[in-house]
Amino acid sequence: MKRSVSSVPTFDSMLLPTIQALQDLGGSGTTEEIYEKVVQILNVPDQVLEILHGSTSQSEVEYRLAWSRTYLKKYGLLQNSARGIWSLVSTSINPNDLDPREIVKAVRDADKNKTSSSDTADEAVGAIETLEELAWHQQLHKTLLSLDSSAFERLAQRLLRESGFIQVQVTGKSGDGGIDGVGIARINGFLSFHVLFQCKRYKGSVTAGQIRDFRGAMQGRTDKGLLITTGTFTRDAIKEATRDGAPPIDLIDGEQLVQRLKELGLGVKIVMIESVEVDTDWFTKI
Question: Hey, what domains does the chain have and what are their CATH numbers?
Answer without folding.
Answer: 5-113 (1.10.10), 149-264 (3.40.1350.10)
